[in-house]
Fold this sequence. Notes:
By secondary structure, this protein is of the alpha+beta class. The chain has 2 domains: 2-107 and 173-216, 2-Layer Sandwich (YaeB-like fold); 110-167, no CATH class. The chain is built from 11 helices and 4 strands; from the N terminus they run ααααααββαααββαα. The protein has a 4-stranded antiparallel sheet with strand order 1-2-3-4, with helices on both faces. Helix 2 packs across helix 3 (25-38) and helix 7 (110-124) crosses helix 9. The two termini are 33 Å apart.
Amino acid sequence: MESFCEEKGVNLENIFLDKFQEESPDMYEKINDFKKVIRIAEVLENRYSISFLLDLFFGFENSLINVDAVMHEVKFLEGTESESHTKEQSEFKRPPLKGLWHKHYMDGSISGLIQNVNNALKNYSIPYFEQKIIDAQKSGEEQYMTAEDIPHIVNDLVTSNLQRRREEQKTTGEWLIYAIHENTKYYLCLAKHGDGDDAIRKRINSSCILEFPFLKEILPVQVENT
């Protein structure tokens, strides 16, 4: 019986929702309504963890994430959206997350916007400003920036540069973390760059491994500090 449970995994979603239904019916209804709105079961069936669901739900409830942006990237990974808004998914190469994959999603935060503007500036500079310099050099005359140039510079620095990154699928953001098992994706949790790999692994250990036992074969063994 034990080996059967390990093979099938534990349905933590049912356990958690039953607990919510007993202790907080209002929250239970909210989570169920949320699931219906984002159609997560239709998109992923049973291939998402309770951590992934609650990360989405509480992130939405607290206005911390753009759920549509997350689900767009999920659908892209699932092949039902033709374009991604962020850079290409990639595999973690180092322990403790080696063997798992992550895809960026745009969280819509000010810090995320600043990071992308900064990255775009490094890659593209400010084309409008550079063109003004080239024009001045060609004319052989000394030219100055005017107040009329400022809106063009700002537009180039923010709007146009961000559009260039989107077109090249280089936009960065926070992570949605998933595993691939038998050519199928399983969605584990959301995370921020600053969370730290050890903290993310701890979250996965605490619940996802119970739901998806194959993770024990994918993830590197952790040695406990003594």
